[in-house]
Write a structure and sequence with these properties.
- The protein is mainly α and 303 residues long.
- The protein has four domains: 63 residues, no CATH class; 63 residues; 57 residues, no CATH class; 71 residues, Glutaredoxin.
- The protein is 57% helix and 6% strand.
- A four-stranded mixed sheet has the order 2-1-3-4, with helices on one face.
- The termini are far apart.
- The structure holds FE2/S2 (inorganic) cluster (FES).
């Protein structure tokens, strides 16, 4: 409970402000706003003008513009202007779908104001390039309060083509903190053949870790694959023993074949497959083969 002393018009204006906040968030937002307002007014009775001053001076964007519009305040600097048309962006991947999904959580009356402001932020993050999925993700994490943040992140996770309940099951089987991340990511890769972005979003939410931490882990270990592999996965050993026995030539031959035909197979290189006795060793779809057997299988796959 705040100890704000309300003047009648101040209470009325604050209630109007709260009615513009989406219902699902109201209970969580009200005490925060009251606390901020109490700090600003420092014991003096709160009038409607003080509430307006608080909104225009103390709230962050894009909430400030949206709430100013909702309580009938004109934007700073003069006459009310219609919402600026959203600047256009170039999008990468599912970024545009994610942007629109994020806006769905904004009430109709505030959506266009949010669209313009959030687009500005996205374009700033893109710094002249395309707006990526990571830019939209960081906007949600930095700006959107809970419970909307959780709802939106969950929606993002289901926008791909994986069964997210499988990821949730893996996480449930591995309770604990950050020490479980590698195990979880291995299990996810075993399940899907790679570690999909949607899985990382869920792990990030459930384990309360930054996406950047997960990407750092995934890219530090050669075992993790972040892109969906082709139908065939060819793993060639780059270890000394295999190199000495012609592993390099095999790699070059496969790369030449894949140059015009990359959709048929994904080529990976590892330090040692642990079977130096058959070097130069090649693993095709999980089966380790010596040079002759590998050539035959490669011919079958790549033509
Ligand atoms: S060096 Fe190639 S399998 Fe060991």
């Amino acid at each position: 409970m705040s100890d704000i002393k309300w003047l009648p018009d101040g209470q009325k204006m604050f209630d109007k402000l709260m009615s513009a906040v989406p219902e699902a968030m109201r209970d969580a937002i009200r005490p925060k706003l009251e606390q901020m307002l109490a700090g600003k007014v420092a014991g003096q009775p709160v009038s409607a003008d003080l509430v307006k001053k608080f909104v225009s001076e103390d709230l962050p964007e894009p909430q400030r513009s949206a709430l100013m519009a909702a309580i009938g305040m004109k934007p700073a600097g003069g006459a009310a202007k219609p919402a600026a048309p959203a600047a256009t962006a170039t999008w990468q991947g599912k970024a545009q779908d994610m942007f629109e999904r994020m806006l769905k959580e904004v009430p109709d009356m505030m959506r266009e104001v949010f669209r313009g402001k959030l687009m500005q932020i996205a374009l700033q993050k893109a710094a002249g390039g395309a707006v990526t999925e990571d830019h939209i993700l960081s906007i949600v994490k930095e700006i959107v309060p809970d419970p909307f943040r959780t709802t939106i992140l969950k929606a993002f996770a289901t926008m791909g083509d994986i069964d997210v309940t499988k990821v949730e099951e893996i996480i449930e089987k591995n309770p604990g903190g950050q020490e479980t991340l590698i195990t979880i990511m291995h299990a996810v890769q075993d399940m899907f053949g790679y570690v999909p972005r949607q899985a990382l979003i869920i792990i990030s939410q459930k384990k309360n870790v930054f996406m950047s931490t997960l990407y750092r882990l995934a890219t530090s270990y050669a075992a993790f694959r972040l892109d969906k592999p082709a139908a065939n996965v060819i793993t060639v050993c780059n270890g000394t023993c295999c190199q000495v026995k012609g592993g390099g030539k095999i790699v070059k031959a496969i790369e030449a074949k894949l140059a015009g035909n990359g959709a048929k197979a994904t080529l990976e290189k590892v330090r040692c497959l642990g079977c130096c006795d058959v070097s130069p060793a090649v693993m095709i779809n999980g089966e380790v083969l010596g040079a002759a057997a590998a050539q035959a299988k490669l011919a079958e796959i790549l033509g």
